[in-house]
Structures are given as structure tokens and as C-alpha cells.
Amino acid sequence: MSEQNKIPQATAKRLPLYYRFINNLHIQGKLRVSSKELSEAVKVDSATIRRDFSYFGALGKKGYGYNVEYLLEFFRKTLDQDEKTPVALIGVGNLGTAFLNYNFTKNNNTKIEMAFDADPNKVGTEIGGVPIYHIDELEQKLSEVQAAILTVPLAEAQNITERLIKSGVTGILNFTPARITVPEGVRVHHIDLSVELQSLVYFMKHYPLDTDEEA
Amino acid sequence: MSEQNKIPQATAKRLPLYYRFINNLHIQGKLRVSSKELSEAVKVDSATIRRDFSYFGALGKKGYGYNVEYLLEFFRKTLDQDEKTPVALIGVGNLGTAFLNYNFTKNNNTKIEMAFDADPNKVGTEIGGVPIYHIDELEQKLSEVQAAILTVPLAEAQNITERLIKSGVTGILNFTPARITVPEGVRVHHIDLSVELQSLVYFMKHYPLDTDEEA
DNA sequence: ACATCTTTGTGACAATTTTCACGACATAAG
DNA sequence: CTTATGTCGTGAAAATTGTCACAAAGATGT
User: Where's DNA bound on this chain (chains A, B) (predicted)?
Assistant: First the structure.
């Protein structure tokens, strides 16, 4: 599947962010960009940006900066923007609905292909162009899908997770407070809104003067 | 305000997570817990947990573990769970609505006191018990509020941010894709749903066998 | 053509964070 | 009392990540 385990995780986490901004620049018709400019836009130190880019070789030109078109093309390849990754969303509550309306596909390699919920009023409808199926049909419908966004109530989280994995899902974006357990080989990224808010408040009170940090 | 700048940021970020799970244990009636057990629950290495706790002194007993009641009490104090922090939410779209229904107050020191939106149909109503005011009333209503959750469209982000800061807000949880610019002293945590999904997909494809990581 | 200005890419270093591994103490059982 | 087992707290080592600062290369202007 892949070869470069050399790229630090910290760098890998920043790549999608870079991609987004480079894409913006391209849309704005900008032809070149320096690490300093990019730094101001994404709020990451310019030296860090140069170092990050350098893991992929020499992408820029000295005295000039980076060619936006070239950079964009490079990131498109690196981030597999050409092959679309089908995603399913489980749990069409408020948060789930927000995702369905988000329209990720715009500049992205991900597309939410289908959603699942237990509510009969929702089943059969569409939100943001995404069809909603009943949760009982999960195993049946999930054949091509590799990634899932989990926005179900806490109590269902582990149960649904197991069904997803049995159906071949290898990546889960988990918005429930549950720290779900998965077999090796399955990636889980947790985003706990309550923890994020708590964290912000803690940092506000205990680290008053610092510059902003990632969550 | 505070004194211990000694606690590493990485540790600080995990504190709310620990708190949540210790609270769960307490509710379940558990009397003690070992770093190993906690490790399995929160998916953080047990040595890291012991190290994290040790920054606060000796919270546990050798050969025994940690007393849940004591630990909970300790975290309650450390995370300022006694003084409620008032929060405002700006932008009552799908995502904003999800937050309003989330009911953070349950086991938390944060409470969304008010929300703002530009839509006249929403202004004057309540969601999840939180009153919705017109965005024009922002400066007027925001007196006590120190933190804000930003769930507005991209185009408004920087503009609203500046108004928030003028009104005394010192912490922002930013869900817009914009990397907002703020003066020193204001904390911003960014959560970009699109970047999170991209990131998950990238890790799935390029770091296949690893164990799960934070987002 | 030349001097000057910019900006990259990176070696060296600093800071942060994680992990190992072990002494010390707790508890329980024989 | 002694042994076996479990667990913390923490020095020390390792790994990861971030920052500095500068030579080299190319861009730009006259």
C-alpha cells in the first residue's frame, strides 16, 4: 500500500491543512507562495513548513518560493486526491446532519455515500444528497465503504463499531465520547466535543499568554 | 490566575479525558482503579498515565492503584469544575444546533448561556434551553462570557472573531475552516471537520498497521 | 553583467514527549 | 513471618518534534 514511513506523524497531520490552503491560493489565482506567507495563513511556523515539505524532496525554488500549481499537483497525488474514498455516516442526529450538509466532496477525495439511522422517519429520505438507510441494513449496504463517521449515542458506539469492522471498515472518525476498542489494523480518530471544550477552558485559565495551539 | 506552568501541554490535553473516565468509574461505583485499567479505557499507555498523574504529586498508592473518589475530587478541583465557565455559541446551523442539544453542563464546568444567529426565524427561539439572539446584539449581550464556540460560515469567521474579542472573549473553539487571526492572549483551538476526515483517510492508507492515535 | 535581495533546504541543536525498567510499598495467602 | 503478586512513582534513555540560523541557489533590478 505505502512505502514512506519516514514522514513524521506530526507532519502527516498537517498535510490536509496545507492542502486546503494551497488549494485556496490556487483558486485565488496566486502563482507562487513562500513558506512565510503560508505560515501566516495556516498558523504554523515557517521553518516547520519548510521542514515538512522537505520530507518529500525539494518542492520549492530558492529565492522564489513554491509554485502553487506544482505544489497543489504534488499534494493532490500525495493525499490520493484522485481516488475517491467512500465514507458512510452512522447516526443522523444533529451532528450527523451537519456532516451530511457539509459537502466534503467539493475539494476532497472523500464522499459520504450513505447514512444510517434507526429512526423510521429518517429512513428513506435524503440529506445533502445522501440517502439514509435503516441501521439494520448496515451489513448489506456497506460493501465498498472503507471509512465511517460515527455520530451515534454513546450506548451504541461499541456495538456499531463491531458491525462496521465486520463489514470491512478500516477507519473510523469517532465523535462519541466512547473510546471504542478495535482490532489491530483499524484506525480510529477520536473527536470528543465535550473534551475539546473542557480543554479549551483549561488552557484559557492555566496557560493565559501563549499563542494558539492545535486542539 | 495560575501557577503551575510545569505541566506539559501534552499532559494538559489529556486531563479532560481522564476526568471523564474517572467520573464514569465513580458513577459505576468502582472504588479503585489501576493505571493499567484506565489505560485500556482511555487508550493511553499506562506509563504515560502514571507520569501525567505524577506531575500533580503522589495521587496513588503503590501496590494498590488510585482511589477513584479521591482522584475524582482531585480532578474536579484541578479542572475548576466548581466554577462554571459561561460560553456563547455563534452560528446556529446544523453543527451549532448539535452543540446546543449536547447538554455539556451535565458533568462539566461549561455551560452555553446564549447563542447568536443572523436568521430572523431562529432569533427569539430556544434550542436545548439556550436562547438565540440576533447577531447584532452580540456586543450588548456578551458581558460575562469568556469563551465562544464558532460555528459560522467561513466568510464570517474573521469578522465575528474580532467582535468577540472586542467583547472580552479570550478563548475560541473554532469549527470553521478559517485559521483565524487573534491578538496575543487569546486562545484558539481549531477543529476542522474536513481536515479531520482527510487526515483519517491519509493515515488509513499510509500508516496501515499502527494502533489508534489522537486526531 | 553585476550587485543585491529572497527564500529554500538542512545541519545542528533544543525542547518536548514517550517509554523503559526498577526500587519501594501494599495486600493477600500460606 | 515469608513469599508471591500487583502497582506506583520516577530516574534515565529513547524517540519525536520544533527551532535556529546560514550557505547556496536563484530571482530581481539597474
Answer: 17-56
